[in-house]
């Protein structure tokens, strides 16, 4: 009995000695390294229409850099009002990340010593840019949608998970940036000032 109590005490002391590592320091995600897209409008307005449910299976609210925040930053960094009338309306339609639990493929003794992929994260982002004239009518529009998925090991640490999420959002934004700029130049080119 005494031995059991001592073992529990030692384990409790060891547990008390371990501490969580500090949160990972991730760089701010910006787009200032890319050239501005100068629009023939007097104002650039960003509207976030995505309402996160703040509940499972959604996890975007837990991420260090949620997709909606980065999408807004994209509009602020890349779009510039260079005209004197009308406005560019940037709308964030979708910015969710869903967590999916994966089934283990091994079991028994083999499974006990095997680390498998435990979760998959499915991210989707959809944005649009509309040119709205002073009478409130839409003169031109471009949209883009991107999706990314990433699996992680079942024993991934919280800091490593933050890094994986960060890289996933970074990749998502690379896709959105490329597609939205291409579509803007194709469908609303006359509202883009050439430099």
Description:
The chain is α/β, with parallel strands linked by helices and 195 residues long. The chain has helices at residues 2-17, 67-78, 108-112, 158-187, and strands at residues 37-39, 43-48, 79-81, 87-101, 117-132, 138-153. α2 (67-78) packs across α4 (158-187). The chain starts with a helix and ends in an 8-residue tail after the last helix. The model has no long low-confidence stretch (mean pLDDT 90).
- The percent of residues in helical segments reads 25-40%
Overall mean pLDDT stands at 90
Net shape: elongated
Strand content: 25-35%
Number of strands: 6
Taking strands numbered 1, 2, ... along the chain, how are they ordered across the largest sheet? Answer: 2-4-5-6
Roughly how many Å is the radius of gyration? 23 Å
H and E order: HEEHEEHEEH
Structural class label: alpha/beta
Counted by DSSP, the helix tally is: 4
Query: For the report, how would you describe the main beta sheet?
Result: 4 strands, mixed
* Low-confidence region ranges: none
Distance between the first and last residues' Cα = 82 Å
Please describe the topology of this protein.
Elements: H1 2-17, E1 37-39, E2 43-48, H2 67-78, E3 79-81, E4 87-101, H3 108-112, E5 117-132, E6 138-153, H4 158-187
Parallel strand pairs: 1-3, 2-4
Antiparallel strand pairs: 4-5, 5-6
Helix pairs in contact: 2-4
Summarize the structure in short.
The protein has helices spanning 2-17, 67-78, 108-112, 158-187, and strands at residues 37-39, 43-48, 79-81, 87-101, 117-132, 138-153. With 195 residues, the protein is of the alpha/beta class.
């Amino acid at each position: 009995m005494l031995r059991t109590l001592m073992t529990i005490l030692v384990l409790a002391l060891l547990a008390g000695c371990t501490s969580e590592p500090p949160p990972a320091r991730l760089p701010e995600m910006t787009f200032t390294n890319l050239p501005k897209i100068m629009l023939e409008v007097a104002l650039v307005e960003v509207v976030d229409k995505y309402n996160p449910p703040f509940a499972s299976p959604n996890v975007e609210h837990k991420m260090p850099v949620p997709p909606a925040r980065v999408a807004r930053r994209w509009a602020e960094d890349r779009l510039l009002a260079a005209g004197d009338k009308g406005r560019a309306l940037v709308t964030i339609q979708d910015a969710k990340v869903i967590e999916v639990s994966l089934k283990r493929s091994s079991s028994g003794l083999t499974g006990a010593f095997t680390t498998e992929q435990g979760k998959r994260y499915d991210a989707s982002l959809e944005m649009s840019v509309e040119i709205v004239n002073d009478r409130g009518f839409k003169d031109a529009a471009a949209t883009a949608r991107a999706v990314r998925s990433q699996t992680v090991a079942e024993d991934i640490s919280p800091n490593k998970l933050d890094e994986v999420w960060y890289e996933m959002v970074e990749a998502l934004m690379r896709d959105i940036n490329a597609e939205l700029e291409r579509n803007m130049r194709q469908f609303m080119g006359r509202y883009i000032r050439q430099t």
